[in-house]
Amino acid sequence: MFKRFINYVISFIKEEYKFLLLLILLLIICEYPINYYITTGGGISDVSSRIIVAKKKKSSGSFNISYVEELRGTLLTYGLSYIIPTWERESADNYKYVEDESVEDINFRSDLDLKVANSTATYWAYTLANKHVKEISSKIYVIMIDNDKYNNPLKIQDELISIDGNKFLSLDEYKNYIQTKSKGDKVIIRAKRKNKEKNLSCTVYEDDNKKLIGVGLQMLKEYKTEPIVKIRFKKSESGPSGGLITTLEIYNQLTKKDLTNGHIIAGTGTIEEDGEIGQIGGVKYKLLGAEKGKADYFLVPAGDNYKEAKAYKKKKNLKIKLIKVKNIKEAITKLKKLK
Q: How far is CA 288 from CA 294, 304, 324, in A?
């Protein structure tokens, strides 16, 4: 039986070898990589399973993060992008990479971005729901070093403890202090690196009439809440652009009125420290994801994001309804009016 099968295969190859060679050649050509990415809407993801408030109530609808799908650029996907109307081509040259940055540093920044987004979402959701929320810690981390212009001894992941013995409660306080210095002054930064504290001397520079020491900083605040909330996003599932939806889901679990009113609601936008909804990149792909996921409404940051989403909705004749939001209070007010 096996010998008969082998003979059949050999005979088939001999008879059809030209066709098989052509097929292999076509596969190689179609899979040939090119300097493009093909981007489209991926879909939506219900966040209720990732956000758990103690004694939460059930919702008749859902809040969803809209995500993007990115395909590898090949001759096949590039060609199909001219046929499939929701596939967009983007040159790989538009993607910027930071040289000499370790995978560890990249992962640290990504993890910190998610923690900050969740922390800010928690604060605003509990504050607007009139529930107990108390800040228990705040830490400032170095997330970027500009070594092209500045010779700075700090490193990404360092926790900034103090400057010249002064501790700061916000990034604005840090920036204001640096502005009191003169170009060429030295400041002593107390920093924690791998659980060890050390003093580092940094030179103050001036660029575009601003005093700088050549670092990018991010503050992470932690809060104690009542009732307790647990947020269990993976880095691949959410990030800063999910801040708006995360805030709304927490708020909805804390309050009696169901903000969804039975609707499937998707959205995007960062949640800033002052409650503003920040702009995000690739909003049209997030809109496509919401449409693909059959969402009823798509919450989008006011300004350029809304203009782009509105124009793209018209261009692609999408059915989903847009809701423009400037800040988290406005988002809640508009959702309460949905029928």
A: 10, 17, 16
pLDDT tens-digit map of 242-256? 999 999 999 999 999
Name residue 115's amino acid.
K
129-153 pLDDT tens trace = 999 999 999 999 999 888 766 678 8
Rg (CA), the chain: 26
Q: How confident is the model at residue 20 (pLDDT cuts 50, 70, 90)?
A: low
* Beta strand spans in the chain (E): 33-46, 51-53, 62-74, 88-91, 132-145, 159-163, 186-193, 196-203, 205-207, 210-212, 215-226, 229-231, 264-267, 270-271, 277-278, 297-301, 321-325
Percent of the chain residues past pLDDT 70, beyond the cut: 87
Please give the Cα distance from 245 to 266 (Å, whole number): 8
Which tokens hold the place of 238? 């959410």
pLDDT, tens digit, for every residue of 121-130? 999 999 999 9
Q: 301 and 325 in contact (C-beta within 8 Å)?
A: yes
For the residues 299-312, what does the mean pLDDT come to? Answer: 96
State the DSSP string of 141-170. EEEEE-TTT------TTPEEEEETTB--SS
For domain 40-70+102-131+227-336, the question of CATH label 3.30.300.30 is answered with: no
CA 14 to CA 302: how far, in whole Å? 65
Nearest to 280 by CA among 259, 314, 309, 311: 309
Q: Please name the fold of domain 136-221.
A: Pdz3 Domain (2.30.42)
